[in-house]
Amino acid sequence: MHTSILNNLESPKYTEPRVRLPKVAIVCDLLEENWASMDLIGVMLERGLRDLGSNINAIRLCPPMHRRLTRSDKNGPQFLFNADRILNRFWDYPRWLRTQRDRFDLFHIVDHSYSQLVYHLPADRTIVTCHDVDTFRSVLEPTREKRSFAFRAMTGYTLKGLQKAARITCDSIATQGEVLAHGLMDPERVHVVPNGIHPSCTPKPDRDADREASRLMGSSCAHDLLHVGTTIPRKRIDDLLRIFAQVRKQIPDARLIRVGGPFTTEQTKLAKRLNVADAILVLPQLERNVLASIYRRSSLTLLPSDREGFGLPLAEAMACGTPVIASDLPVLREVGADAAEYCGVGDTEGWTHTIKRLLQERTEDREAWQHRRDRGMRRASVFTWAEYARRMAAIYSELLTV
C-alpha cells in the first residue's frame, strides 16, 4: 500500500512553459493602391521571418480601402481615386490602426509614404522603411520640385512622422546617404537593409509561367528590349522612347516590351511622333513567376531612370540571366556593381551604342555573352529575402530589448 501511495503522489511530467513570442505588425500599403513592389516587401518579409524560425511572431496588417468617391469595380476619374487614397491614408487607416496598438510589441511600416501612421503608434517601438526621399522632395528641395501649399503641408506632416520613428531602414547606402544629408535622423538610428529578389527570378524554366509569357508576348522577336516599372517622371519613359527610336533605325526588328501598365497620354503621343508605337508591347503588372519568364525571354533589360531608391528590376533581371543597361547612378552601381552596363541619364547616343554593342555580342560572341549572364547571376545572388528578414529581425530584437 505504501508503494501505491508513493506512486499516486508522483509529480506530473514537467512541461516547459509556453513562451510568448514578441508580436511584430508589418504595416502594409493599401492593396487597392496597387504598389506591387511595396506589396512584395510586406509578403516576403512576413514569409522570411517565418522561414527564419526567429523568435518573432510577424503579422501583416492592412485594412480594406473605404471608398467614398469611387467604386471597387471601377476607379473612375483618377482625381477621385486620389481623393479616396488621401482620405484613407490620413483618416481611415490611422483610426483602424489605433485599434491594433495593444496587440503588438513592435510596428514596422514598410513604406515611408505612410509615415503619417507613426503619429498613431508608439513611436519608440515603430520602424519605417524609407525607399527613397522622392516623396519628401517638395519639402526638402522646394525650388527643385514645386508643389501646392496643400501638397507640401501634407508631405511635411508625413515627413515629421518619419522622423518620429525609432529606426529607419533604407534599401541602399545611397538612400541612407540622402536621409543623412538632409539631416532627417541621427546616423545611429538609420540602417541599410537591401531588398531581396523573389524566388521566381531564376534562369530555370517554369512551364506554366513560360506558357503564359508566350501568350502575352506573341510571336518571338530577335531583339526584345524590356522595361519594368511605373510611368512616373523619374522613370524617364520619354528617354526610353527616344532611345528605342534610335535603336530601331539601326536594328529594325527590335521590339520594346514594357511591363507595368499603359503609358501616359503624353508618352503615347511621343511614341507615335517617333514612329515606334507599333513596335512596342505594353503589358500590365504581372504575377511574379510570369514576370520572371518575361525577363528570361528578353534580350536586355533597360533602366533609364534619373532617380531610384534601389532599382529592383536591375537585380531581378540579372537573377533571371538577362543582362542590364542602367542609368549611371550611384544607387544602381551599388546594386549592379560590375555586372551591369551604365549610361548617362538622357544620353541617347550612349544608350543606343551600348544596346547595339550588347545585342551584337549576344549574336556573335556566345562565350562573352554567357560570361556576362553568369556575372549578373552571381551578383544578384547576394540579394535574398532570407538575408533581408535576418537583418530586420536583428533590428527588431535590438528595439525590443531597449
Question: What does the model show?
Answer:
The protein is an alpha/beta fold. It folds into 2 domains: 23-196 and 385-400, Rossmann fold; 207-380, Glycogen Phosphorylase B (Rossmann fold), CATH 3.40.50.2000. It is built from 15 helices and 12 strands. A 6-stranded parallel sheet has the order 2-1-3-4-5-6, with helices on both faces. A 6-stranded parallel sheet has the order 9-8-7-10-11-12, sandwiched between helices. The termini are far apart.
Fraction of helical residues = 40-55%
The coarse overall form would be globular
Distance between the termini: 57 Å
Biggest sheet: strand arrangement: 2-1-3-4-5-6
User: Largest sheet at a glance?
Assistant: 6 strands, parallel
- CATH architecture descriptor text of the largest domain: 3-Layer(aba) Sandwich
